[in-house]
Write a structure and sequence with these properties.
Layout lengths: L1 H4 L5 H7 L3 H11 L6 H29 L6 H7 L11 H14 L6 H9 L5 H13 L5 H13 L5 H7 L5 H14 L2 H16 L5 H7 L6 H14 L5 H8 L4 H15 L4 H4 L8 H13 L4 H9 L5 H15 L12 H18 L23 E4 L5 E5 L5 E6 L3 E6 L5 E5 L7 E5 L5 E5 L3 E6 L5 E5 L4 E5 L5 E6 L4 E6 L5 E5 L2 E5 L5 E6 L2 E6 L5 E5 L4 E5 L5 E6 L5 E4 L5 E4 L3 E5 L5 E6 L5 E3 L1
Antiparallel strand pairs: 1-2, 1-24, 2-3, 4-5, 5-6, 6-7, 8-9, 9-10, 10-11, 12-13, 13-14, 14-15, 16-17, 17-18, 18-19, 20-21, 21-22, 22-23
Helix pairs in contact: 3-4, 6-12, 8-9, 10-11, 12-14, 14-16, 15-16, 16-18, 18-19, 18-20, 19-20
C-alpha cells in the first residue's frame, strides 16, 4: 500500500520500511544481546523466537485488518447527537471547550469569576514588591523557602516574565534553574487562558465586562488574541459602556481603537456610523479595515472607497483582506486582484476596480453581513480528530483524550468534521484505488466518490474539493459526482484548499502553488509539499516532507517561522496561533515559540484537526 501511495519514496521512507517484515526479524534475532547465564540465555532465545514469528506475521495481520470497514458501535452511540443533522453547534456547545481550558487554571466561567481573573492581571505596587521578594527567595539557602517561592510564582495569574527572564541569567545557578522552570511552564499559559476567557465571553454573551477586557488588551501581543478580545468587547458591551468605547476610539493604542469600533457598532448599530467614519482614515490600516467592515455591515457605502484604498496598502495581508471583503460585499466576480503580484499588475487591477466602483458603487446591492473565512471555522469544539494513516482508522477524542467516535477503514490519509457532525474521510478504499467518504455519526457511508484522495474539503456551495493523488490533479465535484473544476498538477496531488478570492491552493510533489479559477498559476513555492494552508495574515503554511520542516512563508517567499519534524505529512495552524503537525509516528501541537504542548502517538502518516 505504501508503494502505491508514494512511488517516489525518499531515502528516509526506505529506511523506515526496512523496519518491517524480514528485516525486523533479522534485527530481533541476530542483533539483540543475550545474557551470559545459560538458563537465562535459553529463556531469552525462546522469547526472541516468539517475537520473530510475531514480527513475520504482522504484515499478514495488517492486510487482514484493512479488508473490512467497521465502526465502533459504542463510540458512535456515545457521540451521536440529538440535534438534527442539518443544524450546527450552538454557542454553548462551542463554549464548552474553552470552559474546560479555564478549569485547568481554576477559573470558573461566570461573569464574576472572569471579572476577578481579568482584574488580577494587573499587579498592584504591593504585588510587584512581592515578586521581587519571591525571586530573591529562589536563591534562599533553605529548600522550603525556595520551593514555596517557586510555587507562588507558578500560581500567579500573570507571571512576571520580565523579572523571571532577568533572573534566568543572573549567574546564580539555583535562581537561574528555578526561574527557567517557571518560565517553561507559564510562558504559554497566559495567552491560552486569555483566549479562552474572551471566547467564553463572546459565546455566552456575558455582559458587563467591557472595562476589564479593555484593560487586559495591553497583554494581547498576538493578532489572534487581539481579535478574540475585540469580539469579546462587542459581545459584552451595553449602552452604559458607550463612554468607555468612545474613549477607546481616541486611544493611542490601535488595539483599543479596534475594540472601540466593534463595541460601538454592536451597541449603537446604525447610530454608530457617524462616530466610526473618521476612523476610515486611521493611521493604522488594521483599524481602518475593521472600521470599513463594520460600516459595511451597517450598510454604509463609504466603506467601499476605504476598502478600495486599502487594496493599495504596503502590507500584502491588508491588501488581500480588503480585496476579499470588497469582492464579497459587492458580489463582483468579474474583476480580480492579486494582492502579491508585482506593483504594475496590482495598479492595473486596482484601477479597474476604481472604474467599476465609480459606475456601480452607489447602486450595487451590498451582501451583508460579511462572514468569517470558512477556513477558520472548526466544528470540533474542543475535540480532536485524528486520521491514523496506515494504521487504518480515524478517531474523535474529547478534551481528556477519550475516544468518543471512531471509524475503521483502510489507510485513512485525511479527515475533516463537517457542520452536520459527519466526517469527510480520505481512504485507500477496499480496492486500493481510493475512496472519499462522508461518514455519519452511526458509521454509515452517506456519500462517496471514487478517487485516491489525500485531502478533501467541503466547500460552502456543498461541492467537495479533492486532491486526487493518483490522478495528479485537484478536482471540485458535485454531490452528484460531476466534476465542475479540474487542475492537472506537475506531480502527485497531496493537498488542496479553496481560498476566499476564488483561487485554489495546492500541495504536490513538485511544490506548492496557487491557481486562479481559469487555471493560471499566480503564486508558487518549490519543494515536495504534503500540505499547504493560507493563513489569515496572507502567509502560507507549508509542510515540506523531504527537508523535514514546516514553514510559514510570506507572499514574497520569505520564511518567517519554521519547525523541524521528521517526515511531516500534515500541518494546520489553529486560531490560537499554535500549529498542529502529523508525521509518520505522532501528532503534536506546537506554540509559536516552538514548544510542544500536546502529543498523541499511534499514527503512521495521516492528519490531525482541532
Amino acid at each position: 500500500m505504501r508503494e502505491v501511495c508514494d512511488a517516489n519514496a525518499t531515502a528516509a521512507d526506505r529506511e523506515e520500511s526496512r523496519l518491517n517484515g524480514p528485516s525486523l526479524c533479522f534485527r530481533l534475532f541476530f542483533l539483540t544481546p543475550l545474557p551470559t547465564r545459560p538458563r537465562m540465555r535459553t529463556v531469552s532465545i525462546l522469547l526472541l523466537t516468539v517475537a520473530v514469528l510475531l514480527a513475520a506475521a504482522a504484515p499478514t495481520w495488517t492486510q487482514q485488518r484493512t479488508s473490512p470497514i467497521t465502526t465502533s458501535a459504542k463510540a458512535a452511540t456515545t457521540a451521536s447527537a440529538s440535534r438534527p443533522a442539518s443544524s450546527g453547534p450552538s454557542p454553548e456547545q462551542e463554549a464548552r471547550a474553552y470552559v474546560e481550558i479555564l478549569k485547568t487554571q481554576s477559573v470558573e466561567a461566570t461573569t464574576e469569576a472572569l471579572r476577578k481573573y481579568l482584574q488580577g492581571l494587573h499587579p498592584t505596587e504591593a504585588q510587584k514588591k512581592r515578586v521581587k521578594e519571591l525571586i530573591r527567595q529562589l536563591g534562599s539557602p533553605r529548600w522550603r523557602e525556595r520551593d514555596s517561592a517557586t510555587k507562588e510564582l507558578m500560581a500567579m495569574p500573570v507571571p512576571p516574565l520580565a523579572e523571571l527572564r532577568k533572573a534566568s541569567t543572573c549567574g546564580d545557578l539555583e535562581v537561574e534553574t528555578r526561574a527557567k522552570a517557571v518560565l517553561a511552564k507559564r510562558v504559554g499559559q497566559l495567552p491560552t487562558t486569555l483566549h479562552a476567557v474572551f471566547q467564553v465571553v463572546r459565546l455566552r454573551k456575558l455582559t458587563g465586562l467591557t472595562k476589564e477586557i479593555l484593560a487586559a488588551m495591553g497583554l494581547c501581543d498576538r493578532d489572534r488574541l487581539v481579535t478574540a478580545a475585540v469580539r469579546a468587547v462587542a459581545a459584552s458591551s451595553r449602552k452604559q459602556d458607550v463612554d468607555l468605547l468612545r474613549a477607546a476610539l481616541k486611544d493611542s493604542d490601535p488595539r483599543l481603537r479596534r475594540a472601540g469600533v466593534m463595541g460601538l457598532a454592536a451597541v449603537l448599530k446604525v447610530g454608530a456610523a457617524r462616530e466610526l467614519r473618521p476612523l476610515l482614515t486611521d493611521k493604522d490600516p488594521r483599524v481602518t479595515l475593521l472600521t470599513a467592515i463594520q460600516l459595511a455591515n451597517l450598510g454604509d457605502r463609504q466603506s467601499l472607497a476605504a476598502l478600495h484604498r486599502l487594496m493599495a496598502d504596503p502590507t500584502p495581508a491588508i491588501r488581500l483582506r480588503a480585496y476579499v471583503a470588497l469582492a464579497a460585499l459587492t458580489g463582483n466576480d468579474n474583476l480580480t486582484f492579486h494582492a502579491y503580484a508585482d506593483p504594475a499588475k496590482r495598479r492595473k487591477q486596482h484601477d479597474a476596480w476604481k472604474v467599476w466602483l465609480a459606475g456601480n458603487g452607489a447602486t450595487v446591492a451590498l451582501r451583508i453581513p460579511l462572514r468569517e473565512r470558512p477556513q477558520d471555522r472548526s466544528h470540533l469544539h474542543g475535540h480532536t480528530l485524528v486520521a491514523y494513516g496506515h494504521h487504518n482508522k480515524v478517531e474523535e477524542l474529547d478534551g481528556k483524550g477519550k475516544v468518543v467516535w471512531s471509524y475503521s477503514a483502510p489507510t485513512v490519509f485525511h479527515a475533516e468534521k463537517l457542520r452536520n457532525g459527519n466526517v469527510l474521510v480520505c481512504s485507500s478504499g477496499r480496492s486500493g484505488k481510493g475512496k472519499v467518504w462522508e461518514i455519519s455519526r452511526k458509521g454509515k457511508i452517506v456519500w462517496e466518490y471514487s478517487a485516491f484522495g489525500m485531502d478533501a474539503r467541503q466547500l460552502p456551495n456543498g461541492n467537495v474539493l479533492i486532491a486526487d493523488f493518483l490522478g495528479s490533479r485537484v478536482i471540485e465535484v458535485t454531490r452528484g459526482g460531476r466534476i465542475v473544476w479540474e487542475k492537472k498538477l506537475g506531480g502527485r496531488a497531496r493537498g488542496a484548499e479553496r481560498l476566499a478570492n476564488g483561487n485554489t491552493l495546492t500541495a504536490c510533489q513538485t511544490g506548492t502553488a496557487e491557481f486562479s479559477p481559469d487555471g493560471r498559476c499566480v503564486w508558487e513555492y518549490p519543494g515536495l509539499s504534503y500540505s499547504a494552508q493560507r493563513l489569515a495574515n496572507g502567509n502560507t503554511l507549508i509542510c515540506l516532507y523531504q527537508t523535514h520542516r514546516i514553514i510559514e512563508v510570506t507572499a514574497d517567499k520569505k520564511i518567517i517561522w519554521e519547525f523541524s519534524e521528521r517526515l511531516p505529512c500534515d500541518a494546520h495552524r489553529l486560531p490560537n496561533g499554535n500549529t498542529l503537525i502529523a508525521n509518520f509516528t505522532r501528532a503534536i501541537e506546537v506554540t509559536p515559540a516552538k514548544k510542544i504542548i500536546w502529543e498523541h502517538g499511534g499514527l503512521k502518516y495521516g492528519s490531525v484537526r482541532k
